[in-house]
Every structure is written in structure tokens, then in C-alpha cells.
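ok so for the tutorial part 2 we go from a plain amino acid sequence to predicted C-alpha cells. step 1 is just haveing the sequence, like this:
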Amino acid sequence: MMIKKFAKSFLIVDISVIFFCLIYGDFIWLLNTQVAFVSSLIITIGSYLGYKNNIKKRVKNIDHQDLVDTPDTIEKIDDPFDLYSDIKIDEKELTKEEVQEIFQDEKKKLKNQNNIKNTIKSFGATSSIYRIIGYIALVTGFFYLKNNDLLDPVSYLIGFIIVPVATLTSKFISK
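step 2 — the prediction. this is what the C-alpha cells look like for a chain of 175 residues:
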């Protein structure tokens, strides 16, 4: 349903740009906007498919037993001080320096763990073949227009931002 909404908004914005170019009779603008639009659309679809597949892989690889044993986000919000858990914690007073040291150690662990893990796990999504094809289309189209003296940077950028603008406007299109 969401994809249809986005496709509808892409089509509306692109047809508006085509209509504008045809009214003014500017073939160069039409060519530039459409080359940039198609490559931008391929990159966006490639990113979507790559990240969608990445999420599916992560969900498939989740150890569901760990999910049962660990408290979820709502439980953490409802009981931030863990007052109702069955586990008894040995409470001792920590000095300010000990608390800061523990905090810094945990922060370093999370920072290093998240950067390395996320980079490795998201590599498949960022290197999606669809996305790579989109970038190849972008570069090839740009150089084709440039080498044939057909490149108009303003219209090329307008064509390239059709997809982001259409994505933003898709929220306002009714079902």
C-alpha cells in the first residue's frame, strides 16, 4: 500500500515536470530531468530493496529465546528502576569515580560494538546490486549528457530531486 502511494506521488511530480518542459518546449530540460529522475528512482528502489532484504535476514537470524528472557522496551519504561523483577541485586554504594569509570567503559563498548556490527550487517544493503545499477545509471547518464553538450545542471538537479520531493509529498496524497 505504501509503495503504491510513493509510486503515485513519483508519477504525479514527474508528469508535472514533463508537462512544464513540454509547455516551454525545452527538450534539453526534459532530457536532463528524465535521465536524473530515472537514475534517482533506481537508486531509491535499490536502497529500499537492499535494506528490506537486510532486515529480513536479521529477523530470520534472531534468537527468539533471548527475546523471551530479556525485558522489552515497554517493561523498561514502565519499571525504569527494575523494582518488580525477580532478580535480587546486591546494592552497594559506589563512589562518583567508580560510577564514571563504569559509565565510560560501557560507553566505549557500545560505541565500538555498534559501529563495527552495524557496518558489517548493513554492508549487504549498501552494496545492493540494484543500488549499484542506479549509481551506474546516474554516472553514465551524467557523462552522456556532458559529452554530448546536453547537460543543463539546473534541470539535472531538479530531475534528481523529484524522488525526494515526491516522497515528502506522498504523505499529503489521500488514499
